[in-house]
Design a protein that fits this description.
Helix content is 54%, strand content 7%. The protein is α+β, with helices and mostly antiparallel strands. A four-stranded mixed β-sheet has the order 4-3-5-6. A two-stranded antiparallel sheet has the order 1-2. It is globular.
Amino acid sequence: MGDELMKLAAFVSQLGVDDVPAEVRTAAVRRVLDSVGSIIGGSQEGQVRAVRERWLEVNPAGSISLLGTDRALGIGPAVFLNALAAHTLEMDDVHIGSKTHIGAVVVPAAWGTAQLVGASGEDLVLAVICGYEVTSRIGMAFGVSAHRARGWHATSTAGTFGAAAAAAKLLGLDAQTTAYALGLAGAQSFGTWGFLGDGASNKVLNPARAAQSGVEAALLAQAGMTGPVHILTAEDGGILSMMSDAPEVERATEGLGEVWEICRVDSKPYPACRSTHCVIDGVLALRSGCGISAHDVRSIDVETYEVGYRQCAEKEGSIHPVNAVQAKFSTPFTAACALLYGKVTLAQLEADVIGDPELRSLMDKVHVRATEEFTSAYPDHWGCRVRITLTDGTAREVTVPDASGGVASPLSAEQIEHKAIGLMEGVVGLQRAEGIVEKVREIERARAIPQL
C-alpha cells in the first residue's frame, strides 16, 4: 500500500525545469497571475479584513507577505489569509476534471513557502506545477460526482495534498520525506459543502485551511514527523473509501509527467459558482443574439447536470437567495442577472441588486432540472441547455457544452491580464496593478519572489 503516494512524491521531488514543456510553464505563470489577481482583489472584502485584523492581534509579525496589504505574518497565518482572500470573490480558477479550485490553495502555499526559503521565481513556478498536478489527480481519484455526493469539498480535501506537494518541492524534500508530507496532508484532509444549507460565509475557510495544513505538513515532514503513505487506500482509515462510494485510485498517477493537468484549468469570467457559468453564457447568447428583453419573458428553462442542479438550484438558498453567498450559488439569480442586466459582475452581488423586485420576479420564472444528457457528460463537460419562452409563446434555446473560460474556449493571455488588473485596481490602483501584472509575467526570471 502507498504506491500512489510514493509515485506522486517521486514525481514532485525529481521534477526539474528541463522536464517541463514550455507551454506548461507558461500555463503555470498564468495560473499564478490569475490567483494573485484574486488574492489582491479579495484582500479588502469585509470578512477578509476582519479575520486579518484579528489574526494580526493574536499572531506575532513575520516575513511572509499578506498580498494586497503592507503587512506580513508568519508562514502559517500568511498562507491562510492569502488563501482566504483568493477564494472570496469566486473568481479563482477551476480544474473541472477534479472539481477543484487549485489556484486558491496551491498559489498561496507556494508563494509563502518560496518567500520563506528565499526561492527564485523559477522555483516557484515549478512548485506550482507540482501542486496543480497532485491536487488534480487526488481530486479525480476521489471520483468527482461520488465525492461531491458525500458532501465533501474537493478544493479542500484534494487541495491539502497539492499545497503539501508545492511546499515540499520548495523545501527540497527527498521522495520519501515528500511522501510523508503527502501522508500528513491526507491525515488532515477535510472540508464540506455544509455552508450551502444556510448561506454561511465559511466556504473560504476550506481552501485557507487546506493551504495552511499542506504547508505545515511539509514542514512537519522536514522536521522528522512521518505520515501515513497508505492514507489513500488503507483498509483502516483510507480516505478514498471513506470519502467516496466510487473512488478511482488509478487516477492518482494516471498520465503523470505526460498529461499536464495544469493546462486543463478554467479561468472564471463571472464571480459565481462555476456550475452557473454555462447558464450565464446561454442567457447572454440568447439576449444578444435574439434581442430578448426581460420584459418579454414568460419562462427560462434550464437543463443541466446533477451536481450543478444540486449545488445551485435545489436548495432554498439557491432558489430564493438573500445574500451574496447564496446568490453566487444560484442558477435562478445568475440567469436573471444575465438577462436583466446583460452581465454578471461583482456589482450584481450587492444587497440592493439581490433584493431588486424586478430581478426577484424574473428569478421566479427560472426553472432548473437535471438531465441524463448533461449528467453523463460531467465532469468532462459542465454544460447546459437554456430555453427562453416569450410571452407570445415563441421560444429560443441554446446548448452550451462548455462554459466560457474553459479549455474549449479559454481566456487569452491578454484577457487574463485584463481580468487580474480589474480585480486589483480597486485595491492598489491602476498603475500598481499593471506593475504587478508585469512582475508576475516575468516571474520565471526573478531571482527572488518579488514584493507586490
